[in-house]
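TICKET: design request
STATUS: open
ATTACHED STRUCTURE:
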């Protein structure tokens, strides 16, 4: 099968490319390298381009003729989206519209879309179901929700099958240690905590200690990146075997607070690093945990790495053994 992966040089996309290549698929990555890295594309099949340039993505699709597109390209930092909303609407939403138009031109019939739990806003209940109200509180969440709606309308109009996967908190690294998460200015909690344990950051910030949770800090559902990637393949198989286009939550259904994550990082690394408490950040949510029943029962997804300590161990193995200066 031929698969085009947009954003395949980024954190999640590069792990998806690795899994697809290991499964024997022909994979081409399309990435502008604004946050991705050429070295992270395992099979070295990369076109450097931007979804905001319609002609670029159209030419790639017409030339490569993929059976499916997996769409990961997006800006994803919630506080930044609050500060620069138009950047997020343009990059995430307009970029998706260009991709859909190019898919129509190239007659691509399958799309797997990387969405987010941020579309739910502040959930009315936990765990969150796919049928629960969507009311984002950040431009990032809205940009993804607008993209979801465009994909749904496009799918109905053009007969394209789609799977929309709403991620919760993705973490960890390839257990083989070949690729992992790299960021010059990390915003993800686990990566920042690991960099603090390494001594690259002086302390780890905890944003908000007055949330309505058991220890006052935000709670998230952390999923290992390779379980997430497997969910993409499982949804694609489901669609290709007659399943209907649908939206799926991807998470483990269990949440951990910021303080619980920090304590687990300290346990894994053996480092008792400094913790600094600060005010809440704009756009952050008190608690978000997935109900992934649909993905498990309808699609048959079975996670392999549902263990916070294992997730952090794989990330730590990558972080402490990887030489950033060689590839940034």
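STATUS: resolved
RESOLUTION: sequence designed for all positions
ATTACHED SEQUENCE:
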């Amino acid at each position: 099968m031929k698969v085009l992966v947009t954003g395949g040089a980024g954190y999640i996309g590069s792990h998806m490319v690795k899994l697809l290549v290991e499964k024997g698929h022909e994979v081409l990555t399309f990435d502008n390298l604004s946050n991705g890295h050429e070295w992270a594309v395992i099979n070295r099949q990369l076109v450097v381009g931007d979804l905001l340039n319609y002609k670029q993505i159209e030419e790639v699709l017409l030339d490569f003729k993929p059976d499916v597109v997996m769409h990961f390209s997006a800006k994803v930092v919630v506080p930044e989206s609050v500060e620069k909303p138009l950047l997020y609407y343009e990059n995430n939403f307009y970029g998706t519209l260009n991709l859909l138009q190019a898919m129509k031109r190239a007659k691509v019939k399958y799309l797997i879309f990387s969405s987010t739990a941020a579309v739910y806003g502040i959930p009315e209940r936990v765990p969150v179901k796919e049928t629960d109200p969507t009311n984002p509180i950040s431009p990032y969440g809205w940009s993804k929700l607008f993209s979801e709606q465009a994909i749904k309308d496009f799918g109905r109009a053009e007969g394209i099958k789609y799977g929309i996967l709403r991620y919760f908190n993705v973490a960890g690294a390839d257990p083989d240690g070949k690729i992992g998460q790299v960021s010059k200015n990390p915003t993800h909690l686990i990566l920042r905590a690991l960099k603090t344990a390494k001594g690259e950051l002086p302390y780890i910030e905890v944003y908000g200690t007055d949330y309505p949770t058991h220890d006052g800090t935000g709670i998230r559902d952390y999923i290992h990146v390779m379980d997430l990637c497997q969910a993409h393949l499982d949804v694609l198989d489901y669609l290709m075997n007659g399943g209907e286009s649908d939206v799926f939550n991807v998470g483990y259904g269990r949440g951990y607070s910021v303080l619980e994550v920090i304590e687990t990082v300290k346990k894994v690394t053996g480092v008792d690093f400094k913790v600094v408490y600060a005010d809440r950040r704009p756009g952050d949510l008190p608690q978000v945990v997935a109900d992934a029943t649909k993905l498990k029962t309808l699609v048959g997804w079975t996670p392999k790495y549902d263990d916070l300590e294992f997730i952090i161990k794989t990330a730590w193995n990558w972080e402490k053994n990887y030489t950033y200066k060689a590839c940034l």
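CLOSING REMARK: Residues 85-106 form the longest helix (22 residues). The chain has two domains: 2-171+222-250, 189-220+253-326.
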